[in-house]
Amino acid sequence: MRKAYWVSILIAGLMLSGCAGKEPEPPKEIITVRATETDEILACYASDKKFSRKEFNNAYKAAFADVTRSKDAEPSPLLCLSLHQLATYKQFKGGLEALVRYIKAQPESAPSLKGLVQLLQRLDQEKVGKWAQNNKNLDVKEEKEELEAENRGLLERIDALEKSSAQDQERINGLQQQIEQLKNIENIIKNRER
Fold first, then answer.
1. Residues 6+ positions from 105 with CB-CB distance below 8 Å
2. Does position 110 have pLDDT exceeding 70, yes or no?
3. Angle at the Cα of 13 (from 27 to 8), degrees rounded to 5?
4. For the segment 9-41, what is each residue's pLDDT rounded down to a tens digit?
5. DSSP string covering the chain, please?
6. Measured distance CA(83)–CA(97) in Å, rounded
7. Greatest alpha-carbon span in the chain
8. At 21, is the secondary structure helix, strand, or coil?
9. pLDDT above 90 covers what percent of the chain?
10. What angle do CA 35, 44, 109 make, to 5 degrees?
11. How many other CB atoms are there within 10 angstroms of residue 11's CB atom?
12. Given this model, what pLDDT does residue 131 score?
């Protein structure tokens, strides 16, 4: 009985450790990751290649020419350049428009690009909103400066009027004294005549 006890513990231990009664695992599938157009664009954007202004403009013109020759041309190089820090707003919009045209021409091959387009359109809205806000701030700033200049003019005019008023008050006081003196003289003359 003692022997059966130890045998059952040994079998239980082997089963728990996985040495007994376990089938071998099937070989794991090898997963191959294929880079999408979006991956290429984002990888290119992340590389942040250094260009001189002239090199950038030449590269953008060449990429734009490639995309405009064929509506099936992959817009990745153009879009990558249109996202570069040297890109103008017009170049950014050109890259975005080329991407939208590509998606319309190749809807089945660019599912991840649709999300990128939505992200870039949102970025564009923010950019335009910020531009509008900056213009509004400039307008408010200019209006504030105009009002401040107008206020300075009014304050200068008020100062001039206050000085003029003080001078007029002095004249009035002088004239009142003269009137009082004339009244006194008149009273003196009337008193003499009596």
1. 71, 72
2. no
3. 125
4. 666 665 655 554 555 566 677 766 666 777 777
5. -HHHHHHHHHHHHHHHHTSSS-PPPPPPPPP-PPPPHHHHHHHHHHH-----HHHHHHHHHHHHHHHHH-TTS--HHHHHHHTSTT--HHHHHHHHHHHHHHHHH-TTT-HHHHHHHHHHHHHHHHHHHHHHHHHHHHHHHHHHHHHHHHHHHHHHHHHHHHHHHHHHHHHHHHHHHHHHHHHHHHHHHHHHH-
6. 13
7. 164
8. coil
9. 8
10. 40
11. 12
12. 73
Tokens of 64: 């734009």
Residue 108 has pLDDT above 60, yes or no: yes
Q: What is the mean pLDDT of residues 164-181?
A: 91
Cα distances from 1 to residues 6, 7, 15, in angstroms, run 9, 10, 21
The encoded tokens of residue 80 equal 């990558």
Residues whose CB is less than 8 angstroms from the CB of residue 43 and which lie 6 or more positions away in sequence, other chains included: 35
- The count of C-alpha atoms lying within 13 angstroms of the C-alpha of 27, restricted to the half-sphere facing its C-beta, is 3
Provide the token pair at 132: 């509008």
Lookup: tokens for 4:
């059966």
Residue 49 structure tokens: 């290649």
Task: List Cα–Cα distances, 109 to 37, 82, 101, 156, in angstroms.
Answer: 9, 21, 13, 71
